[in-house]
Model the fold of this input.
Amino acid sequence: MSKKIFSGVQPTGNLHLGNYLGAIKNFVELNNNDANQCIFCVVDLHAITVKQDPKELKKNIRETVATFVASGIDPNKSIIFNQSGVAAHSEGAWILSCVARMGWLNRMTQFKEKAGKDKEKASIGLYSYPVLMAADILLYDATHVPVGDDQKQHLELCRDIAQKFNNDFDVEDFLKAPEPLIQKEFSRIMSLKDGSNKMSKSELSDLSRINLTDDKDQIINKIKKAKTDPLPMPKDIKELEGRLEAQNLLGIFASLSNSTLESSIEKFAGKNFSDFKQELSKLLVNKIMPISEEIKKLLKDQSYLDSILLDGVEKANKIASKKIKKIKEIVGF
Ligand code: TYM
Done:
């Protein structure tokens, strides 16, 4: 069966190894399967839920497109576009926000994390952000949504919103509840400095993450400084229990080398962390450097990147404007 794939990435700069292994690597595989119809969105409306410098935002939108293309997404096969270019996303988000319930949004853990202690000062957009995400997905009748583990709760909300809309307006199966595509393993890459925190662009220390634009020396240095523990490398999965940093680094190795955690443990059993780190750096440099160099090359050709977005916006608009028209009719406008 042909899959309709939709996913989004925020253009907030510093796309990192977590974004790559949790999401973009998967986008590339889905793009490469001719049976799929893929749409990848640069979610600039989501980005402004926290304060952005307009010049930086513009630069980061192009950098996100460059990252998609440099990672292997073919703009001639998949639609790549920016969310603000298709008005149906904002319109859909408003209508769906009248369907979604406060109680549902109050459960969203990402809002609690992002808003921090001072919730009163968070933007309303940050709070209702998962509703916009639901509109993104539902406008395209997406059947599958590839994301990292941190977006699971938002996808469950999207399914609830779709179901309530269909019930409220008595339109069975009109909005299609999508299936999440979350990898079983390695769907949550952790900080290099603290194995209990997600690798994230908002963490202050740059040493906590490998950016997709890092150069060879930065990658080697970050892995050298990555937190480990005083024990030798584990001999089996059992010995890895509770050792969050070792688990994360071995997970990164396994994911990048397309192998299993078990076989990666076996490969380094009984060795020192420093031997393992050398091998991990080598693998990272081999995988990330070509992407990093290609991003830098693509960024020099802004008109090419802009033309990808223009073309993508046109194609996305064709699909989304039809769906929003029907949504408006159903609602009674
Ligand atoms: P964003 O921009 O925070 O992240 C983009 C993708 O990267 C994944 N990710 C990770 N995966 C594993 N380990 C990590 N440390 C890690 N950090 C980030 C995220 O799970 C995501 O898949 N709300 C979304 C963007 C969005 C979207 C959508 C996604 C907007 N509309 C519609 C799917 C469908 C977000 O902020 O992702």
Summary: The mean pLDDT is 96.
